[in-house]
Design a protein that fits this description.
Number of domains: 1
Largest sheet: 3 strands, mixed
Number of helices: 2
CATH architecture: 2-Layer Sandwich
Radius of gyration: 12 Å
CATH topology: GMP Synthetase, Chain A, domain 3
Helix content: 25-40%
Amino acid sequence: MSQQVIDAIVAAINDKLPGAQAEVNGGQGHYTIAVTSDAFAGKSMVQSHQLVYQAIAHLMKGEGAPVHAIDRLVTTH
């Protein structure tokens, strides 16, 4: 199940941020994410993190959501 969730996170980030390089690790609902994207150019860290959270929001919604927490999020341009 963890690999399916990791794949879903990466796919969601790539859908929202085409060309992004995303590395996702974790399991049991807790994940660490590192994303490199040109979309972050000129944006603050908060704005960059918001883009990632917007991309994966559907995976964090609801009682049975596969993603419970992002333990660490790193965004770079």
